[in-house]
Design a protein that fits this description.
106 residues, three-stranded mixed sheet, 3 strands, 8% strand, globular
Amino acid sequence: EGIIVVKRDGRREEFDRNKVLSGISRACEKRPIDLEQIDMLITDVMVELENEFDQEIPSRAIGERVMGKFKQIDQIAYVRFASVYKDFRDISELEQEIADLRQGHE
């Protein structure tokens, strides 16, 4: 039995690793992160989430867990992923995210 992802609007679909990989790969473009690291990141996230949620995982949980990993690996990739995931409405939301990142590292 595969893993089911529960979308924000309540729809359910089978987990597609390639979808997650493509979003993460875009965020990592021209960053010093190789495919092996990305693959390990996805595996780590999915193992953690399967332990927490069993078979049905909210898409929100996947995005938030990926952001948490990016925060530790590469801040530029984190901001890129977060800007798509969080759907920033304007530059001030992006600025706030960067300010929060800076505070966490001081």
